Amino acid sequence: MKWIFLSLLAINVVLISIQWVSSRNVVVPLDYTVEKGSKRLELLGEAGGASLSEGRAVEVCLLVGPLETRVQAEVMLKSLESDGESSKLVVQKVKKAPSYWVYFDDYEEKPDDDWLEEFKLKKIDSYVIGAGELKGALSLGVFENIDLAYRLKKMMKKKGYESKINEITKEDNEFWLLFSKGYAAENKKKIDEMLTPLKKLHEKREILCKSVASEK
Q1: Does residue 26 carry a pLDDT above 60?
Q2: Interior/surface letters 73-111, b for 16+ CB within 10 angstroms, e for the rest
Q3: How many whole angstroms separate alpha carbon 138 and alpha carbon 164?
Q4: Which domains are assigned to the chain?
Q5: Which of 31-45, 49-63, 90-104 has the lowest mean pLDDT?
Q6: Helix, strand or coil, per DSSP, at residue 132
Q7: Among positive and negative, which fits the CA dihedral 17, 21, 22, 23?
Q8: CA-CA distance, 86 to 187, in Å (whole number)?
Q9: Which tens digits make up the pLDDT trace of 93-133?
Q10: Rounded CA gap, 65 and 90, in Å?
Q11: Is the pLDDT reported for residue 166 higher than 80?
Q12: Cis peptide before 197, with omega less than 30 degrees from 0?
């Protein structure tokens, strides 16, 4: 009996040893592997918006203006005696507040002159529009304030006439000076001296040079 017990004990020891050696060769599944000392992946946005192309310089320019006229801008550029690359004229289209044109085109079978005469008798100022999309209609007035335009329209309705309002969109040019950042720093005093006598206040904006197309 003693020998049988010792034999079984020896077999169990061998089996346990085999299992222990096998367990050392088991590969942990990749999905659950954690590397010691590893850091959490940081998103690009969390890194402060760093560019993927780090090392590539972003060119910054200084935009000064707007100036009152093209002539004024050109004179200033000439006095700076730049090479044409360090400072440039930039012309920008800007929308201005619209005007409102009150007009009458609800004609009956009678000529414009008869309508003009009728309006004159009722002390309504008018004239025939000679060009544009409203050509042939009778102008009753042009206003910068839409409330005044609606007031005239209401007055015309009280007198028995259905007038209309047409919005006149307006654009204008703004003139700016564009300087490379290095040139603006070197000539800051001279640029400020040229702007000081001008009545209009001017802005200084730092922008990406490539975002502005200079006038050729």
Answers
A1: no
A2: beebbeebebeeebbbbbeeeeeeeebbbbbbeeeeeee
A3: 10
A4: 60-95+172-211 (3.30.70), 96-170 (3.30.70)
A5: 31-45
A6: coil
A7: positive
A8: 11
A9: 888 899 999 999 988 777 778 899 999 999 999 999 999 99
A10: 10
A11: yes
A12: no
